[in-house]
Amino acid sequence: MGRELRVQDGATSLPTLADVAAMAGVSRQTVSNALNNPSLLRADTLERVRAAIAHLGYTPNRAARNLRTKSSRLIGLRLTPFAEDTANATIDRFVHALVQATRAADYHVLLFDGNDPADPSSGYDDLVRSTAVDAFVVTDTFKGSPQAAYLEDGGVPFVAFGRPWTPAALHPWVDVDGAAGTSAATAHLLAQGHTRIAWIGWRKDSPIGEDRRAGWSRTMHGHGLRTTGLASRVEDCVTSGVEAAAVLLDEAQPTAFVCASDTLATGVLHQLHERGLRPGRDVAVTGFDDSPFAQLLPGGLTSVRQPVEEVAVQVVDRLGKLLTHREVFGSGTLLEPTLVVRGSSER
How far is CA 238 from CA 42, 276, 283, 286, in A? Predict the structure, then answer.
């Protein structure tokens, strides 16, 4: 049932704990126990209180509960500026999924911005000192991430979307197996009859990029195919993808590309268009992240899709365990992505 509003002096107000107590014929303390310590009540009493709560549509006052429990039920997530010349929207999907997952667990997400990206405490410091949030979710977990180190050193609870890439890290994490994704993309191209499959990825100092590269390399070598001269490491932007594709097409003559991101794959598609080559029929292309662009492109871009909805559920589950001291520090969960096949890779 919906909330039952009371009228006092011509104004309406939401039902209170006292209203529930009066309807159920119990004390206010009994209602409080029903909400916070139901095991203390007899089954019939608990059922009577819950029926009154449902009838009135009563919702506990969050601010008052926070004063008693010292818990905000808020999870902090720092947003970083959107990078220009990229097609990646994975974090957008993750934020939406995280909001849904936290709400199901009776938490809410507090989004905040760091004024100084170079300062690991920027944005975090005020929230940590004011205890405005119970924990954080961190998404920038590249090797040696200063944000993760700052929180870890301060004993601040957090769970990362992304591996820490260092055995010394103690925080729990959830990540997607990038190598498995690019391996699936490479195997798909091999099944289409391609043997000269090029790789365009990120710089060597990117462990995520190297992880994705490993899937392509391992699968090629597993089929007895050489990779010498077929790989390029560049910045993650469309322009870099255009330039890398031009060099590889001129010097290595690949018939297919596996890219570390949809952004780089977009650059390859631009280069094919400039040469009058058709994706799929002439040169196959696969990306990574299954961005909106991949889905909207005429014919579609074959891309590896990260299960960010499941990532969010796992992150929230680990947060719950962390905050109730049931989490194993340093442990992680690696999830499998899926390959979404579209016209850019089919002849």
Answer: 64, 18, 18, 14
Residue 235: count of CB within 10 angstroms of its CB: 16
Tokens at residue 192, please?
């289409």
C-alpha to C-alpha distance for 315 and 49, rounded to whole angstroms: 33
For residue 49, count other CB atoms closer than 10 A to its CB.
25
Cβ atoms < 10 Å from Cβ of 128: 18
Total residues belonging to the chain: 347
Write out pLDDT tens, residues 62-111.
444 544 456 788 999 988 766 655 666 788 899 999 999 999 999 999 99
Q: Is the dihedral of CA 104, 107, 113, 119 positive or negative?
A: negative
On whether the CB atoms of residues 79 and 113 are closer than 8 A, the answer is yes
Residues 6+ apart with CB under 8 A from 222: none
Residue 144 and residue 121: Cα distance in Å, rounded? 15
HSE-up of residue 41 (Cα within 13 Å, Cβ side): 20
Q: Which residues contact 231 (CB under 8 A, 6 or more apart)?
A: 198, 199, 200, 201, 213, 217
Q: pTM above 0.70? A: yes
Q: How far apart are CA 105 and CA 126, in angstroms?
A: 25
